[in-house]
Amino acid sequence: MRPWRMTVACLHTAASNIPLFEAAAARHGLTLRHALRPDLLAGAEAAGGATPAILAETRAELARALPGASALLLTCSTLGPALEGATWPIPALRVDAALARAAMARPGRLLVLCAVETTLEPTRALFAAAAPAGKAWELRLVPGAWARFKAGDAEGYAAAIRAAAVGAETVALAQASMAVAGGGARVMTVPDAAMAALGTTLGGTLSAASR
Question: Mean pLDDT of all residues in the chain?
Answer without folding.
Answer: 90
